[in-house]
Amino acid sequence: MQKINSSELSFVVQGPIYQDITDKVCESIREYFPECEIVLSTWEGSSIEGLKYDKVVFSKYPGSTQRVENQKILMNANRQYISSKNGIAVGSRKFIIKTRSDIVFKNNNLLERLEKLTIYNQKDKEYSFLQNRIIVTNVTSVNPHKNLQMPFHLCDWFYAGLAEDIKNLFDIPLYPEEKYASWYATHPKPTNNTSDSLARYAAESYIISEFVRKYKNINFEHSFDISSDNIEISERVIANNFMIYSNRQLGFYSMKNLVLPKSYLYLMYTSYDWIQLYNKYNFQNKIKFVIYDLDKILNSLVYYCRKVILGILDFFKLKNLTKSILKKVKGFSV
Q: 150, 222 in Cβ contact below 8 A?
């Protein structure tokens, strides 16, 4: 296994500057990856005083469109895309790590994960579009075999891989916000879409599906489109172009999203799910792994306990009262 030094890494820290957060982000990167290059990519007019970085990119703020009816929740696809792509363009090292301005590292586990890219090298040429795989976190990497049927939906918090592959991933068109952000205000929702969002595509699935469209003709009309073998195509794309780890395995946490309910993570891929996909769609050099997926066991346990508790509360007509109380607790999801 080829060793990787922190001098081979460019960290692109993209997004708004958060007071008392982004400084910790940059300091943590410098602490655990001392020889890396830090590229700060943010908006014109942002104050970057006191932050530790090597290069800075200021982009014009693109604005945003409301994507949830009667709520001030905005589509962030182009904000992420522009700040990410412009920052990636000036990264000069062999590997680029696209991360967010609220993600703090607590160790250098990432080096070992990057080194494993050279081990898991079996690919299906029909579905392999990169020089090597890109590492993502599982936080919003939806397993479409669970309750959320969302193919091509990989987490967009964090991408780590060869510079040419990260640049390739972001070589896609801008998200057409005016057309897609409020799509379901004028179009019927598919029956399997239970979200509050009006957007035709979530930012995560837009990035991956547009990347795939450069190489393969897919019939993917919206984020919940499971027709035309989209789940199998999505699995093959993930198995051959990405690797999935948890935040814990990658050694970081988000200061914006400190609490990630396991009942929510139950719906996402785990690293062991990815290994199963790798073995399923690559017929040689299968990966041996432990039988018990601890992350999945814990997430499943909390998920089903939550369902039982909410069922009991609903039976005694206490569900809505409990929801109103618990929603006041920051980070609690019901």
A: no
CA-closest candidate to residue 265, choices 138, 173, 168: 138
Instruction: Provide the pairing of β-strand 95-100 with 159-162.
Output: antiparallel
Angle (deg, nearest 10), helices 319-326 and 294-315: 130
User: How distant, in Å, are the alpha carbons of 82, 110, 152, 182 from that of 158?
Assistant: 15, 11, 15, 26
Q: Do 141 and 299 touch, CB atoms closer than 8 A?
A: no
User: Quick count: other Cβ atoms within 10 Å of Cβ 28?
Assistant: 18
| Rounded CA separation 310/5 (Å) | 49
Say whether pTM exceeds 0.90: no
Cα 212 to Cα 97, 147, 176, 257: the distances in Å are 20, 24, 17, 29
The CA–CA distances, whole Å, from 203 to 156, 183, 268 equal 8, 14, 16
* Dist. CA 147–CA 168, nearest whole Å: 31
Cβ of 281: how many Cβ atoms within 10 Å? Answer: 18
- How far apart CA 57 and CA 98 sit, in angstroms, is 14
Beta-carbon contacts of 172 under 8 Å, excluding residues fewer than 6 positions away, are 81, 207, 210, 211, 214
Per-residue pLDDT tens over the stretch 136-180:
999 999 999 988 999 999 999 999 999 999 999 999 999 998 899
Q: What is the dihedral of CA 106, 110, 111, 115, to 10 degrees?
A: 160
Query: How far is 203 from 154, CA to CA, in rounded Å?
Result: 10
Burial status of residue 182 (CB atoms within 10 A of its CB: 0-12, 13-18, 19 or more): buried
